[in-house]
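Fold this complex.
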Amino acid sequence: MGVRERKAREREQRANGILEAARHMFETKGFLNTTLADVAKEAEISVGLIYRYFQSKEDIFASLALKGAEQFDKDIDSILKKAQSGKKKPTAAFVLYEIATTFFKFYKPYGEYFDMLIYSYKGLKHVQIHGATLTRLMSVTLSSLDKLKNYILISPHFSAKEEDEALRVVFVLWGILLGSHLLFDSSGRGHLFAFRQDEFVQRMIDQILVGITAVPLEPPPKTSSRSGTRTTELTQ
Amino acid sequence: MGVRERKAREREQRANGILEAARHMFETKGFLNTTLADVAKEAEISVGLIYRYFQSKEDIFASLALKGAEQFDKDIDSILKKAQSGKKKPTAAFVLYEIATTFFKFYKPYGEYFDMLIYSYKGLKHVQIHGATLTRLMSVTLSSLDKLKNYILISPHFSAKEEDEALRVVFVLWGILLGSHLLFDSSGRGHLFAFRQDEFVQRMIDQILVGITAVPLEPPPKTSSRSGTRTTELTQ
DNA sequence: TTTATTTAATGAACATCATTCACTTTTTGA
DNA sequence: TCAAAAAGTGAATGATGTTCATTAAATAAA
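Structure:
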């Protein structure tokens, strides 16, 4: 009776072994430079067997991306829960910084995961990627973003009052994380110009929180801010 | 006498023809799905001839990225010059929105250029990419960022007073552009949830300018903001 | 225990390109 | 007119993702 269960477990273990082997190779040599022979050797199986578990090399990458996204989603979840449950609730800056840290910390071992996440719908062939994998990948990502959105709606630290507004804030944050990762990553050794990544991101978050415009020292004059569409005028 | 010049011109034209053919194919089928046979056919030459002009398929892509980055740099330049020369100087929001628009407008015809820009230093093999191409690619990109930095330093709209601060603002903006492009692009048809990209970006810029924290209605209480490192406290 | 059936696993064969190169055609300068 | 150089060709090469005929192992049935 337990046979079916054991088989399923073994099957999953094998799939996971392939994934971890692939991750190791992708991290070491990069996706394009890694051959399936490399992966097979690392996983100590034959090349052909890989195809009983994954539809293609890209399918492996997509599965890795999914695995990464799922872990990230869990991390986000626990950060936000912690942020809302304690007595002494952390400030927005602190929470955001924790999320950013998770994002980057997470990025390292998971190598090209997020690149894949980003790329999964265009740069790659994505013929022959298991359909459910791509669907879940997107769905898990959106789930993380949704959690962030809800936190922003609830937290008194943010000015966003409605869904769209909060979602926009989430995308601002998300965009900054993506963007600064890409910037730092592509610049080679993890530091861009004079900045260290962690310090840079922290300051960036602070800056986003308070805005980048010159803050008037005295209360701003009554401007006839046009109904909702713009918060700033187009000419001075 | 004009022979050498004509030859040089013809050579450049041929190289350009290959680039444009490659762009067309990359945009249509994606980088990985495009074969050099496709490119050769589109350019109406033989496969072998491509290699007299480019070192590899990836070198072609890098050259396209460079071409794109150069055009973008010019655009940034003219936007910023215009912003500083007129009598009625546009607001920061307007300038930033123009830059964002250029970024996205630009992105469309140039297809995967920025993806390549992003990817050029890691995902791809980038063995066999002409060294000068990569160097210039990075250099042109940094040049654009530097111009933006200078504008932010000079413009009275921004609070940034020193180099590092201004550079950070630039990266915030850059990150947002990269990030929101990736978000919108990967979501398929250029609209994410209920948002249209142009409207979304415009609002996003407004938001970054004023900050995403709840703005206190009365002047904030005197907080002992610790010297410079943080603008927000970690616990409330 | 023995046999049949399903599943796991192999690795050589295949197909698809990126890349190379021996060769042909065209252009150039004398 | 002609030799040297440059431009151009496309078949051959090599690397690698993918397939498949075949073998080995595990399970269920007898």
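DSSP finds nine helices and two strands in chain A.
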